[in-house]
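User: Here's a structure from my thesis project, written as structure tokens. My advisor, Dr. K., wants to see whether a designed sequence matches the one we expressed. Can you design one independently, without my sequence as a hint?
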């Protein structure tokens, strides 16, 4: 009779990754559009921990509307064809904690909200994913100040959700904890009384 207990490898308990690194990334995962496309933008940055050290094994996922503000509902996000925008992408960080997406500038999904990219972070030591938003520098004066989420934050915390323009596109660094920690969101049940 075989001893099953000695044939099984130990598995992780309450943790996320870095066990996903071999299975979840796929070709073109961070390219929501082709890099050479005329309206493509680069969204990039670095993920750091509470000590300011780079996180080399995080996995980031983004969801966003298209430039017209439409939430894309097309199948096939895992099969990139080079021209269909699906509004979803995934990117693993490199050894220096850096990441990069090629995407489109999102449009407004409602008159009340500034355009944003939804971001989820999976990383070692996290018991659950972290969720936040990335707002790009405003195209219309006052659109960031009028956004309900940004307006609800203390003024000194708002900048942790706003990317900055640079020579390579838009830079958005994530600080998982500590000084200048990125604001992370808690999503609960939908409320219909607003």
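Assistant: Designed independently from the structure alone:
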């Amino acid at each position: 009779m075989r001893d099953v207990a000695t044939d099984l490898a130990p598995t992780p308990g309450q943790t996320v990754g870095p066990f996903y690194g071999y299975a979840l990334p796929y070709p073109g995962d961070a390219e929501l559009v082709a890099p050479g496309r005329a309206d493509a933008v680069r969204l990039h940055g670095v993920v750091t921990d509470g000590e300011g050290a780079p996180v080399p094994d995080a996995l980031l996922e983004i969801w966003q509307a298209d430039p017209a503000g439409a939430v894309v509902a097309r199948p096939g996000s895992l099969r990139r064809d080079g021209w269909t925008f699906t509004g979803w992408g995934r990117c693993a960080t490199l050894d220096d904690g850096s990441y990069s997406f090629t995407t489109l500038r999102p449009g407004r999904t409602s008159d009340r909200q500034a355009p944003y990219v939804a971001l989820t972070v999976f990383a070692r030591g996290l018991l659950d994913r972290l969720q936040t938003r990335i707002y790009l520098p405003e195209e219309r004066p006052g659109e960031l100040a009028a956004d309900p989420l940004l307006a609800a934050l203390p003024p000194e915390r708002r900048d942790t959700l706003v990317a900055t323009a640079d020579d390579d596109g838009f830079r958005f660094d994530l600080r998982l904890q500590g000084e200048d920690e990125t604001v992370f969101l808690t999503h609960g049940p939908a409320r219909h009384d607003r």
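When you compare it with your expressed construct, this may help: The chain has a mean pLDDT of 85.
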